[in-house]
Design a protein that fits this description.
The complex is a heterodimer of chains A (about 425) and B (about 170). By secondary structure, chain A is of the alpha/beta class. Chain A has two domains: about 270 residues, 2-Layer Sandwich (Aconitase, domain 3); about 150 residues, Aconitase, domain 3 (2-Layer Sandwich), CATH 3.30.499. Helices cover about 30% and strands about 15% of the residues of chain A. In chain A, a hairpin with a 7-residue loop joins strand 12 and strand 13. In chain A, helix 2 crosses helix 5, helix 6 runs parallel beside helix 8 and helix 11 runs parallel beside helix 14. The longest helix of chain A has 16 residues. Chain A is globular and about 65 Å long. Chain A starts with a helix and ends in a 13-residue tail after the last helix. Chain B is α/β, with parallel strands linked by helices and about 170 residues long. Chain B folds into two domains: about 140 residues, Aconitase, domain 4 (Alpha-Beta Barrel); about 30 residues, no CATH class. In chain B, about 30% of the residues lie in helices and about 15% in strands. In chain B, strands 4-3-2-1-5-6-7 form a seven-stranded mixed sheet, with helices on one face. In chain B, helix 3 crosses helix 4. The termini of chain B are far apart. Classes of the chains: A alpha/beta (about 425), B alpha/beta (about 170).
Chain lengths: ~425, ~170
């Protein structure tokens, strides 16, 4: 029987000719990513070596990536001390894929990995972050793990006792209408599958719409696959993947594509036509509480956020700036923009987008996770509402349990900034 | 007998279990103070040691969804709570196994705060209401990690075996 992309990758990485759903495998890890929580990974890693008599040694420092993004620059002495501890470890163990708080090579881990050419089709990528699913956009099998599991990977170089997951196939056809795009598609999918609909499963994206979609859009789909519970999201690598790796990630060496077999077996198949899709909004307090925009248009919004590992890429900023240009953020509403990496920030400056945002009244912040997880900036006040291009709206997510977060595309966020209420960008952004 | 200390619904995220603003605290023994920090009453009871070890939290479907933060597990492990739910999100389930937090998957479980449960190997009986539901067992691959006492001892053992063989796994 044929294999899905996930099955093929797991078979290769486990040194087996074939695997099937439910098999227990121990795949070799091609890339192991952590962010600030490397501080906990280090703690658990040293615990593994305790009383073994062996010197604690990372199995392959060239395959470990550490990117500071969750709390940058540090918001507290505690975070700063954790970051210092990680820096010391990085130096001692000669970890080269380290991205400190910097304007040139810094940014959000799920943007830094692809743009630095660290992720290749067919790779097994683990990360101590649930949105590690993002990297399936390049045809990799990428999944989130906890800190202790990462400590195990740092020790052994492979993941222990992984069950081969079943795969859901999603076929997407049709052309997106104006102001509708990948974010609306994935919100629609999560609404249909529910927050647990893909738990312990992989989502494989297919169809003409996906083939025509840029890697930046595919990253949105795979990034939020975890919001339906998926272990991984995968877009089988193709010519666009090669274009991205060559032109945007500086990869010169050979790239091997890993397509699924024609007779691969899928546990569920979903067909979606995007030709008539309208902007989608995930309403408080679950990501699967998805509604077409007309059901929530007019809701007053106090904070607009554009950014994150989901929608902080250049084309997201370009769409938003295009809508805002020559307009003003409404009084009573504040708008925060977080480019996903220093490289994107620089391009946004060079192309005049940062000026567009600032003239409109938006605040452009440094690259990082920002307000998405309510750690150290952009918290909401009691009773306030945020409209955000981020990926989660759980109660308290943006720093305050007495507030609400709506999730949307960059186009909806920008149009709504102008009016101060949830606004359909197809209606001009002038009024609700 | 297990007393139900806290009852929750579906899709309880790790942001609810351990809010993001406390994520700068990473060491497992320092995390319990922030368990369900936004639920002041339950958090207060935990910190005042009014919830005895071995008490249960009962949840619905998809318990532990969202962020992979391991603090959401260590914070509950610190009080030796048992989590009984209709289902668990993948990363939370794996983290719980890795750290030795006891999870019981019991589809259809119905219980209120104050109810007493009898958690057997195959069934959960609500002694207060008389209802009984079946437990879904963990897959074998995960049970072996539980039996080893968690992922740290499991990995340490593998490391020792590989070092003794003088060769790492190819």
């Amino acid at each position: 029987m044929g294999m899905t992309v996930a099955e093929k990758i797991l078979a290769r990485a486990s040194g087996l000719p074939a695997v099937k759903v439910g098999d227990v495998v121990e795949p070799k890890i091609d890339l192991a990513m952590s962010h600030e929580n490397a501080a906990l990974v280090i703690n658990q890693f040293l615990e593994v070596y305790k009383e073994t008599g062996f010197e604690a040694k990372v199995w392959d420092p060239s395959r470990v990536a550490i990117i500071f993004d969750h709390r940058v620059p540090a918001e507290s002495a505690k975070t700063a001390t954790n970051q210092k501890k990680v820096r010391d470890f990085v130096a001692r163990h000669a970890i080269s894929k380290f991205h400190d708080i910097r304007g040139d090579i810094g940014g959000i881990c799920h943007q830094i990995l692809p743009e630095s050419g660290y992720v290749r089709p067919g790779a097994v990528v683990v990360g101590t972050d649930s949105h590690t699913t993002s990297h399936g956009a390049l045809g990799a099998f990428a999944f989130g793990i906890g800190a202790t599991e990462m400590a195990s990977v740092w020790t052994l170089g492979y993941a222990v006792n992984i069950e081969v997951p079943a795969t859901i196939m999603i076929n997407v056809r049709g052309t997106f209408p104006p102001f509708v795009g990948p974010k609306d598609l994935i919100l629609h999918i999560i609404g249909r599958l529910t927050a647990q609909g893909a738990n312990f499963r992989v989502i494989e994206f297919h169809g003409e719409t996906i083939r025509k979609m840029a890697t930046s859009g595919r990253l949105v789909l795979c990034n939020m696959s975890v919001e339906a519970g998926a272990t991984a999201g995968i877009v089988p690598a193709d010519e666009e993947t090669i274009r991205y790796l060559r032109e945007e990630a500086g990869v010169a060496n050979s790239v091997t594509l890993v397509p699924p077999d024609d007779d691969a077996s899928y546990i569920q198949v979903l067909d979606i036509d995007v030709s008539a899709l309208v902007p989608q909004i995930a309403c408080p307090h679950t990501v699967d509480n998805v509604k077409p925009i007309d059901q929530v248009a007019g809701t007053p919004v106090q904070q607009i956020v554009i950014g994150s590992c989901t929608n902080g890429r250049f084309d997201d900023l370009e769409v938003a700036a295009g809508i805002l240009r020559g307009k003003k953020v409404a009084a009573g509403t504040r708008m925060l923009v977080f480019p996903a990496s220093g490289r994107i920030y620089q391009k946004a400056i060079d192309r005049g987008l940062v000026a567009d945002f600032m003239k409109a009244g938006a605040v452009v912040m440094n690259p990082g996770c920002g307000p998405c997880l309510g750690i150290h900036e952009g918290a909401l006040g009691d009773g306030e509402v945020a409209l955000s291009t981020t990926n989660r709206n759980f109660k308290g997510r943006m720093g305050n349990p007495n507030s609400g977060v709506y999730l949307c595309s960059p186009a909806v966020a920008a149009a709504s900034a102008v009016t101060g209420m949830i606004t359909d960008p197809r209606k001009g952004g002038a009024s609700a | 007998m297990t007393n139900v200390a806290f009852k929750l619904g579906d899709d309880i995220s790790t942001d609810v279990i351990y809010p993001g603003r406390y994520m700068a605290t990473v060491l497992p023994n320092e995390t319990p103070q922030f368990a369900f920090a936004d639920y002041a009453e339950f958090n207060g009871k935990l910190k005042a040691k009014k919830v005895p070890p071995g008490s249960a939290i009962v949840g619905g479907k998809n318990f532990g969804c969202g962020s992979s933060r391991e603090q959401a597990v260590s914070t509950l492990k610190g009080y030796e709570l048992i989590i009984v739910a209709e289902g668990f999100a993948r990363i939370f389930l794996q983290n719980a196994i890795n750290l030795g937090l006891r999870l019981v998957t019991a589809p259809g479980i119905e219980a209120n705060e104050g109810d007493n449960l009898e958690i057997g190997d195959h069934q959960v009986k609500n002694l207060t209401t008389g209802t009984v539901v079946d437990i879904v067992q963990l897959p074998k691959a995960r049970q072996v990690i539980m039996e080893a006492g968690g992922l740290i001892p499991f990995t340490r053992k593998r490391l020792m075996e590989e070092q003794q063989k003088g060769a790492r796994k190819p």
